[in-house]
User: What shape does this take?
Amino acid sequence: MEWNPEDYSKNSSAQLVWARELIARLALRGDEALMDVGCGDGKISAEFAHALPRGQVLGIDADPGFIAFAREHYPAGAHPNLRFERMDARRIAADREYDVVFSNAALHWVDNQPAFLAGCAGALKPGGRLVASCGGTGNAAGILLVLCELVRQPRWQAYFTGFQSPFFFQSPENYAAWLRDAGFSPSRLELVAKDMTHPGRAGLAGWIRTTWMPWTACVPASLREEFTGEVVEAYLRHQPLDGQGWSHVRMVRLEIEARRG
Ligand SMILES: C[S@@+](CC[C@H](N)C(=O)[O-])C[C@H]1O[C@@H](n2cnc3c(N)ncnc32)[C@H](O)[C@@H]1O
Assistant: This one.
């Protein structure tokens, strides 16, 4: 399974909107050190670098292609307070103490939240904040239902033998326990429903192509466009485009705010 950073950066405006909502809640002073976990193409880390003129930002991501893309698009010369490092969220090795660990639309890809939280606690100053949003219980249920139906069809079945979803959509209850075990005091753990919109069929296809690769990567490259098209058409039969031609997907985010004790 491979990410396509260029395509992702053009098809992730909803993720950027969600990130900006969280950034507003952070009420930054401008001098904090912040780590952005699962930074992807780096555009959100770059927004932080702009908001923290006297601070430092480190974007980390497990995917080397994303790190290369982020370094190329937000070079150190133009962004002296911004760096990107390849690092797995389950093995955070911090180079300094951070005031904030932030993560948007990434933690539901991580199969071991206690390992992430242990590294996160190690990276934060005492009293430092973890602010994150990821897929929560019930996230994208309409898309998952369509995928579940599609992969059982004779046309696609053979490509999905033994397939398991790599997404971990977490509940506030599980997360509260993991946070306390890792030495955090949670102040907000909330499932928040979001109406994710995409401009028409092409926009919905762009999102499926760039974020649902665990499924699309199972089919041969020559059939991916056809498979993606079938996901789009099947989804739109359940949830048609609105009068202005936008598709709507009900997303559920788990929003996490906690302080290291
Ligand atoms: C949907 S993208 C989100 C990117 C960005 N935060 C945003 O909101 O646009 C998910 C990101 O999580 C990263 N990721 C997944 N598992 C990871 C892990 N174990 N450690 C670090 N990054 C991971 C992926 O490589 C990808 O860049």
Observations:
- The two ends are 38 Å apart (CA to CA).
- Residues 200 and 243 are 11 Å apart (CA to CA).
- The beta strands are 33-37, 56-61, 82-86, 98-104, 124-135, 184-199, 246-260.
- The chain has a mean pLDDT of 96.
